[in-house]
Amino acid sequence: MITFFILLSIFFFPIISAQGEWHLLHASVGVSAMHMQLLHNDKVVIFDRTDFGPSNLSLPPHLCRHDPRDLALQTDCTAHSILYSLPTNTFRPLNLQTDTWCSSGSVLPNGTLSQTGGFNDGDHVLRMFSPLDNDDDGNCDWVEFPGYLSERRWYASNQILPDGRIIIVGGRRQFNYEFYPRSSSLYSLDFLRETSDVDENNLYPFLHLLPDGNLFIFANTRSISLDYKRNRVVREFPPIPGGEPRNYPSSGSSVMLPIIETPAVQAEVLVCGGATPGGVSAAGRGNFLSASRTCGRLKVSNENPNWVMEEMPIPRVMGDMLILPTGDVIIINGASSGAAGWEAGRGPVTTPVIYRHSGDVNDTDRFSVMSGSEIPRMYHSSAVLLPDGRILVGGSNPHVYYNFTNVIYPTELSLESYSPPYLSPSFSSIRPQILFLNNNIRYGRPFLVVFNLCGYRINDGVLSANIIAPSFSTHAVAMNQRMVVLRAESVMKVAENRYRLSVVAPSTPEIAPPGYYMLFLVHSDIPSYGMWVKIH
Fold first, then answer.
1. For a Cys staple, 206 with which of 93, 98, 105, 218, CB 3.0–4.6 Å?
2. Would the pTM of this model clear 0.85, i.e. be above it?
3. Which stretch of DSSP H or E encloses residue 6?
C-alpha cells in the first residue's frame, strides 16, 4: 500500500497550484462512465447502459452477450462495464448481461457491490460484484439475479442501513420502497407521489441515514424523516426556499455534512444546485434557462430546523458533490443552464468549486473556484473520491447513442483525475503519513494509528481522524456517502517525528453503518493518504 502511494506521487501529482490540477488518465476506456463505485481493494467499478449498441471496448473471446430483449443489439460482443485499477492505472472489461441504465447501488458490509435495477430487461435485476483482494487473474465479474426486485427500479436511490440491509427507494412511477435482502413486503410511500410534478423532479431522491436511525429523504423541494422499520413519516421539514426543484431531471445534489462524535450528535444536510422551475420543460423546447446557484443547509437534528440559504459563485445543474477528507465539499461536473436529459443541458461548468462547510454563513470565502478541466462533463458523468485524495472523473453522454461527431458535446470515454490544492507537494512537511493502524475495528472500541509527521506539536489541536464511506455515484447523486469525525483519546510521541494516536471507533451503526471506510488523518487541513478500515 505504501509503495502504491509513492508511485502515485510520482506519476499523478505534478506541481499543484492553489486551484488544484487535472490529469488525463486515459483518453478512452471504451465505455462512458455513467456509474462509478470505489471498492476496498483500490479498484473502481465503472459502467454505462447496455441498450445503445456497441461500446468502444471488446469483450474477451466467447463472452458475447446474447439478449433477445435488447433494444439496440441482440448479440453484443462489446463491454459496457470496466474494472479500473488505481495502483496500475489500467482497466479490463466486465460483462453485463442486462440493462443498467439509470440504476443504483450500495456496498454491503463484506465489500460486495450490490447493484439494483435499470431499464427494460434490467429493471427488476439484482447484480453483485465481489472484489478479491488480488484480482490479477481477472476472474471477478458481475453475477446477476433476474427478477429479484419486487418492483421496477429505474432512477431509484439506495442507502445501506445499520443492520447491513439496503433500502431501495422510488424510481420512475414507483411510490414505494423495498429492501435487500428482500422481504415479503413492499412499502408504500405517499411522499414520493406527492412530490412528483409535471416534470417528475423526484427521481433519484436524496437519502441520508440519520444518527437517530431514521432515513432523511429529499425529493423535489420537500424532505421528511422516515422510520422505515414502521413505515411511518416521523417528521416533515420545511420546504427548501425558492421553489427550485432539486431532483432528477432538475438534478441538484446533496451531502450530509460530517458527523462529529459528541454526546449530542448533530446531523446537517446540504443541498446545492438544480434547475429553475420550468427548466426541464423549457429545455425540451430548446430554451435553456439558467440553473440554480443556491445551496441550502438544514440542521435536521434541531428541534425547529430551518433552511439557511447561500449562493454558489456559478449556477450548476448535474453537479457531483463529494465530501473531501478535510470535511469540505467539492462540487464538480455539470452545466450552467438547462436540465438533465438527452440534449437538455448547455454551458458546461468545467471548474470545480470547493465549499468550506465550517465558519459563518456570511463569510465571503466559503466557496473557492478551482482550476478547470478541458473536458465538458454533462449528462451521464460521474465522480468519486479516491483514497489518495484525488477525485476520479469520467463519463458525459447527453445523446441516445454514442456520438463523437457533429454534436455540441461529444460522448466522453475519457477518464481523468482532479487533485485538490491539499495535494500540493508544498504541503508535504505538514502531511501525516500513516504507518500502521488496526484495520478491523469494532463499534465504540479504541484503536491505534501510528503516523509520521514532521514538526508536530501534540497539543496544537489541529489533528483529526476522519472516516469516509465511498459513494455509489451517478446522475449527480453520491449514494451512501458519509463522513464521521472520530473521537481522539490521546496522542503519544514514540520516536522522532513518529506518534501513536488512540481514537475511538463510531459508537453505533446508525452513525456509521457496518462496512469499509477510508480513514484519513488531517493535520492543519492537509490530509494523509487514506487507509481502508472495516467497521463491525
1. 218
2. yes
3. helix 2-11
